[in-house]
Design brief:
Layout lengths: L1 H7 L10 H9 L1 H16 L6 H26 L7 H17 L4 H25 L4 H21 L5 E2 L3 H8 L1 E2 L2 E2 H19 L1 H11 L1 H6 L4 H27 L1 E2 L7 H13 L9 H20 L4 H23 L19 H25 L6 H10 L1 H15 L7 H17 L4 H24 L5 H20 L4 E2 L2 H7 L9 H19 L1 H11 L1 H6 L4 H27 L1 E2 L7 H12 L10 H20 L4 H23 L22
Antiparallel strand pairs: 1-4, 2-3, 5-6
Helix pairs in contact: 3-14, 4-9, 4-12, 4-13, 4-14, 5-6, 5-7, 5-12, 5-13, 6-7, 6-12, 7-29, 8-12, 9-10, 13-14, 13-15, 13-21, 15-21, 16-28, 16-29, 18-23, 18-26, 18-27, 18-28, 19-20, 19-21, 19-26, 20-21, 20-26, 22-26, 23-24, 24-26, 27-28, 28-29
Length: 674
């Protein structure tokens, strides 16, 4: 009947004048945010919207935009590149050397782009040729390439002046009313957009990032396209080095420091995260403009650069939260994990993989003992343990994160923030134990925030902890005014007083940390769940276990080990330095992966992490004993890390064992326990 039909008909929706705007606003949330920010900044500052200041923003954004475009291409195919900041230094140095030797601007620019492309090719070779995690590969190349750039720059007294007509024109001239550097960056952005949206190559790149297995079945050369993305990223970073050199007029050792994280932030700001197969050129352009507008406005308002860093971290957090809530960007897995294609290891292959790094560590120690007779002494062995105590303890937490597929790159910054909190509490009258509790609480709060964002909102842990790396370091520097603050002398004396045979409490804490880590991973139910969520979160969901809760617990455990590392570092240094712990998170991650833990998650043993820690500890201690400069140290350390990763990958591939017929690769995988 018509009556029943009308009764079943749902009531009409109430008309709203804003209803038609919801969809486009949702799709272009960051564009709207950029417009709103520009309007707000213009209203609150008369100097912001002037023509001269807008030109300044565009000049500052040019190099960052090029880096963002390079990182976007790699993220598009499911990877990540953390070496672009170091490539800026190396490529700018190559250009500067070419100009100094009177080879001409064209050769200088070609050399810079060539250096960047070469680094990208090496990254692609290691990631795609040897199936090593892109995060770890580009961490190693970041260290090695910076060392290489510093060594080359050191041949010219670590300072090269840029005085060339073409470079000066790039920095000072305008094209169609835009600064030349900005016009070049925007032109390249337009070319990238054209290729990605209108060519077969672009569609294939999106297909690789969206679903690599399906793309491979369709005949798409997945590895080749991923490698091409890394080469293009390196070339764009090389061009960014040219623009940076032209804008600053000099090449110094500080060029490019931290730019890799801002390049990632630009992509994440525009896209609301790092969704493989979905990032777009326009989003990256918007992200670069937002970041540079915020920096510029805070500079106009007289806000210190340290607070600008803190604000950038929270801005990045806000962007990815908006991207998750408003745009609904899927973010199920950590960036770069999908690129690692590992097969199940037989016992012989697993033994070769683990023992290869152990043998390399022993060989390295023997070499240093032959070069430096003091290396193999008991006092140096104790000093080696004390120097690397905080690093070893943090590595236990890093393994928990990687096993549970929750990589953490914020530990070094959180260590600095916790130490600053403890020192400030002591400075304002708190007793030593209470001051330490304040620092520990700060570490746990930072990790609790990370855990909530990753667990409850299902955000990418790499981006969440990248934001924490930025805001925690900025907050540590801001609270201290970039000054070192002394801590309780009695605590420092206790931490540096030997208990027996020269062993201090820091060494004892290493043993306790590894023992506790073993209990957590091998003897407690949470350990099984951490391995399970790293292997396949669906297993836990089907068993009725909350994956969000497990991830939050994982971050709290990481926070506890990071706090313990903070206590050790504070006792060893005797003061809270806002720059303390810089690079600590990178060493911890590299040690875990070199030791044999799978970057895919769900696989790894704590004793193998101890081997990775020993490798890096011996390497750092041995190089320090040779009294070499920072440039040579970075070059050799980065090269050794890449060599160790290559050795581990090759040892895993021989002898190969084919999975039994009827079983998939993942079905035949045997998970190693700690």
């Amino acid at each position: 009947m018509s009556t029943s039909g009308s009764a079943a008909r749902s009531p009409p929706e109430r008309w709203s004048p804003l209803a038609g705007l919801r969809a486009p606003v949702s799709r272009n949330a960051m564009v709207v945010a950029a417009v709103v920010l520009f309007g707000a900044f213009a209203v609150t500052s008369n100097a912001f919207a002037t023509l001269g200041n807008v030109e300044n923003i565009l000049k500052q954004a040019a190099a960052v935009l090029l880096l963002g475009l390079g990182v976007m291409l790699v993220v598009l195919v499911g990877g990540i590149d953390l070496s672009v900041g170091s490539v800026v230094l190396a490529s700018a140095t190559a250009a500067g050397i070419a100009l100094t030797e009177h080879l001409g601007a064209a050769i200088a620019i070609a050399a810079a782009i060539g250096v960047g492309a070469l680094v990208g090719f090496v990254n692609a070779l290691l990631v795609e040729g040897l199936s090593i995690s892109p995060v770890i590969v580009t961490l190693g190349s970041m260290i090695a390439v910076r060392g290489l750039g510093l060594v080359a720059l050191g041949q010219y007294r670590s300072w090269i002046d840029i005085d060339d007509p073409l470079f000066n024109a790039l920095a000072q001239n305008a094209v169609l009313g835009l600064p030349a550097a900005a016009a070049l960056a925007l032109a390249i952005a337009g070319l990238c957009a054209l290729i990605l949206r209108r060519t077969i190559l672009g569609r294939r790149l999106y297909a690789v990032g969206d679903h690599a297995a399906s793309a491979r079945l369709c005949g798409v050369p997945v590895r080749l396209l991923r490698g091409l993305a890394y080469v293009a990223c390196g070339a764009l970073a090389g061009l960014a080095g040219v623009i940076t050199a032209a804008r600053t007029g000099v090449i110094s050792p500080s060029i490019g420091v931290g730019l890799e994280f801002y390049a990632i932030a630009v992509v994440a700001l525009g896209a609301g995260g790092l969704p493989a197969g979905r990032v777009q050129v326009g989003q990256t352009v918007v992200g670069a403009l937002i970041l540079m507008m915020v920096f510029n406005y805070m500079t106009i308002r007289g806000i210190a650069g340290t607070w600008q860093t803190t604000a950038t971290g929270f801005l990045l957090l806000g962007a990815i939260v908006v991207g998750r809530l408003v745009q609904g960007v899927p973010d199920d897995s950590a960036v770069g994990i999908g690129l690692v294609e590992e097969v199940g290891l037989g016992r012989l292959r697993a033994s070769l993989s683990r023992n290869a790094i152990a043998a390399a560590t022993i060989l390295l120690a023997l070499v240093f003992a032959l070069i430096n007779p003091r290396f193999a002494t008991l006092p140096n062995a104790v000093a080696l343990l004390e120097q690397n105590a905080a690093f070893a303890i943090v590595a236990v937490g890093a393994m928990i994160g990687i096993v549970s597929r929750s990589i953490d790159i914020s530990s070094g910054s959180v260590v600095a923030l916790g130490a600053v909190g403890a020192a400030l509490a002591a400075k304002f009258g708190a007793l030593g134990p209470l001051a330490l509790c304040a620092g520990i609480a700060l570490c746990l709060i930072a990790y609790a925030l990370n855990g909530i964002l990753v667990g409850a909102l299902d955000l990418d842990p790499l981006i969440v902890t990248l934001a924490a790396w930025i805001w925690a370091r900025g907050l540590a520097v801001s609270l201290t005014g970039a000054q070192t603050i002394a801590f309780d002398p009695s605590f420092v004396a206790f931490m540096n007083t030997p208990l027996a045979i020269g062993v201090t409490p820091a060494v004892v804490l290493i043993g306790l940390a590894f023992g506790l880590g073993w209990i957590i991973l091998a003897r407690l139910p949470i350990g099984i769940r951490l391995y399970a969520i790293g292997n396949d979160p669906r297993m836990l969901r089907q068993a009725g276990v909350s994956t969000s809760r497990v991830r939050m617990i994982a971050f709290l455990l990481m926070g506890a080990f990071t706090a313990a590392g903070m206590v050790v570092m504070l006792g060893r240094l005797g003061a809270a330095a806002p720059t303390a712990g810089f690079g600590l998170e990178l060493d911890a991650i590299v040690a875990v992966i070199i030791g044999g833990t799978s970057f895919r998650g769900g696989e790894g043993r704590l004793r193998d992490t101890a081997v990775g820690v020993a490798f890096l500890a011996v390497l750092s201690n041995g190089l320090s004993g040779l009294q070499m400069g920072d440039a040579e140290f970075f070059l050799i350390k980065g090269g050794a890390i890449l060599a160790a990763l290559t050795l581990r990958s090759l040892s895993r591939s021989f002898p190969a064992r084919r999975p039994r017929r009827g079983l998939s690769i993942h079905d035949s995988k045997t998970k190693a326990r700690p």
